[in-house]
Amino acid sequence: MMKNSMRGALAALLASFGLAAASAQVPDLDPREDEQAELPVLPEQETVPVAASGLIDRADLESWLDGFMPYALAQGDIAGAVVTVVADGEILLSRGFGYADVATRTPIDPETTLFRPGSVSKLVTWTAVMQLVESGQIDLDADINTYLDFEVTGVERPITMRHLLTHTPGWGEQVRALIMEDPERFQPLDEYVRNNIPAAVYPAGEMPAYSNYGTALAGYVVARVSGQSFDDYVDEHILAPLGMEYSTLRQPLPDHLEGLMSSGYMRASDGEGRDFEIVTPAPAGSMSASGNDMARFMIAHLNNGEGLFSPETAELMYTSEDRKLPGVNAMLLGFYQQNRNGHRIIGHGGDTTLFHSNLHLYLDHGVGLYISMNSTGRGGATGRIRQALFEQFTDRYFPVELEELPTLETAEEHGRMLVGNYVISRRAHQNFVAATALLSQPSVTMNDDHEISLSILTDASGTPLRFREVEPFVWQQVNGVERLSARLNDNGEVEMFSAAFFSPFMMFTPVEWWRNGTLLMPLAGIAAGALLLTVLFWPVRAIVRWRFKKPFALSGRQAMAYRLSNLGALLPLLHAGGWLWLVTHMMSELSRLDGRMDGMIVLMQFLSVLPVAALLIALWNTFIVWSGGASWFAKLWSLVLVLSTLVMIWFLAAGGFFSFGLTY
After folding, report:
1. What are the TM regions of this chain, as residue ranges (predicted)?
2. Second label for 488, Cα 20 to 30 Å away, from 31, 50, 264, 464?
3. Who's near 312: CB < 8 A, 6+ residues apart?
């Protein structure tokens, strides 16, 4: 149960606030359920070509969605969704499925019902940035401090707006005050960016590591440069010109839109909607928008930024690649490459706790696809549905014949170089949230056919995908189009790798040996077991002596050492257990990151003295036992206590549990 709970903590980091976008491919790390929602298995269908006019046949599209969405939502326990498709500058289809409110059975109106697209909001922020780049008010390659009234620092070199657009400022994960339900705790944007500067851990420009703070900072620069509030700028320069009347990034909602908001659910079967979520780094994910308004936004970008900026700026935004690995997708200026079947596709994903969305633009065809769901559902359902919708839509209307590439002779050698445990580049490095990177590490394995698998890349049934090496350090999915790619360092070792889905914004890097869960977790389990046995047998021995009227055989310092050693065995267990409960509790509901748990965090940081005290007690007990006439078992067990306490301290240090402060 603890393992599954901690997997959930990682999921909350990686997916629940897509202010992450990775959730579509990490359904096995769902924070709330072990059971997995199954998507509808549709009969084999012939691919349907794009019509001669360039438009997808509406009747076919509608029929196809009717066969997919209702069943998928029901299986995933999701209340409702909106799906919008645009083509040739028009809304081809915009449909609501399910309910905006389960209790009143209110249907979804794609024109007026508001959903929360989460990190898809970032595209609005990046659009605003590119408008100011076009006007010469922002230089993509200038030190970002040029535009700030406080200072942020990078590793080795200054951080620039280009780094923010490509998620390469080099910052670690920052989750404090990410999302909340209490408006009283909401920080204005200027306060948030000043008070939550993440630690710089990578050289700026080198490592993709998705950053909500980076987008919030970019939004603050927009406000500083334009002389308007961020919300006012977006209203005047993006929403109004595009006619997006049923959209806003303001929180809470303006009065005229409040009654149009879809309820948000953990599960549709709960029957009761949750409170409106407030995203503190607002430019990173605060948007509320109808399906048709998102269609207007897609059409503008598909028409080379018409109504937003010049075609030259659009081309700069859509084609400036920050490519870290060969053969997989790259990060553009704000957009992800999502190329599939040889077609040029860009987009973004997004999640709040309750709403889950994806947006895809097929640049060479003038087609856009948007989906947003108003429930988290069960078993990672929203991630599976979004990814299946994108893949099946693309394969149906923009198909490709799979080319059977031969497996390279180096497959075994290169595959073995990749096998092992990894950490994601987007993670906390220096505080207790780092425990999520310790307790659930993605792993690469290789089968007898020299095919490799990444544990968090699975198909709709939860089975890990298999990949064959088709180019040096580039692997192709068996019977599929997904790809993996790796890069070596100067020593000929794997420096980083990623899958095409993740590669624009996140890398996998080999975990240090002392943080490798394959080594540390079994040792920590054995150590905790030894300490727990010591604690449990203390009262058992006392009861046995009382029952058989046996006197306590020890006295003086030996008696004191015995009693203290049993008490000392309890201290690391209390400290580790307290932290694990606290991290699991906080990360399972992201609204708990709003500061309400700060008192518990400070208490646990103060209690860091417990495992240190336990080690001193264990060492003193060993000295007393070995200097007296104790039995061989007592001497051996005294060493076991020392080693077990050291392992627990190692575990706590690797998990970031000896950190101090309230920046996390």
Report:
1. 519-540, 561-582, 602-624, 636-660
2. 464
3. none
The span from the CA of 301 to the CA of 570, in Å, is 60
3-state secondary structure of 549: coil
Domain boundaries, the chain: 2-397, 411-511, 515-654
Q: Is 137 exposed, middle or buried (0-12, 13-18, 19+ CB in 10 A)?
A: middle
Q: Which CATH class is domain 2-397?
A: alpha beta
The number of residues making up the chain comes to: 664
Bridge partners of residue 180, in order along the sequence: 278
Sheet holding 106-107, edge to edge: 106-107, 90-101, 80-87, 367-373, 356-362, 345-351, 336-337
The 8-class DSSP code of residue 369 comes to: E
Nearest to 663 by CA among 173, 167, 13: 173
Q: Helix count (H) and strand count (E) of the chain?
A: 18, 19
The Cα 473–Cα 476 span in angstroms is 10
Question: DSSP secondary structure string, 192-244?
Answer: HHHH-PPPB-SBTTTS-B--HHHHHHHHHHHHHHHSS-HHHHHIIIIITTTT-
Residues 515-574: pLDDT tens digits?
999 999 999 999 999 999 999 999 998 898 888 888 888 888 999 999 999 999 999 999
Which has the closest alpha carbon to 374: 385, 362, 361?
385
What residues have CB less than 8 Å from 476, skipping those under 6 apart?
405, 467, 468, 470, 482, 483
User: 252: cis peptide before it, omega within 30°?
Assistant: yes
Q: What is the pTM of this model?
A: 0.90
Q: Which amino acid is at 603?
A: L
DSSP H or E stretch at residue 438: helix 435-439
For residue 144, the 8-state DSSP code is: G
Q: Which tens digits make up the pLDDT trace of 259-307?
A: 999 999 999 999 889 999 999 999 999 999 999 999 999 999 999 999 9
Count of CB atoms situated within 10 Å of the CB of 431 = 25
Please give the structure tokens belonging to residue 368: 């856009």
Q: Tokens representing 636? A: 């051996």
C-alpha 111/C-alpha 127 separation (Å) is 23
Q: Dig out the tokens for 434 from the structure.
A: 């780092």
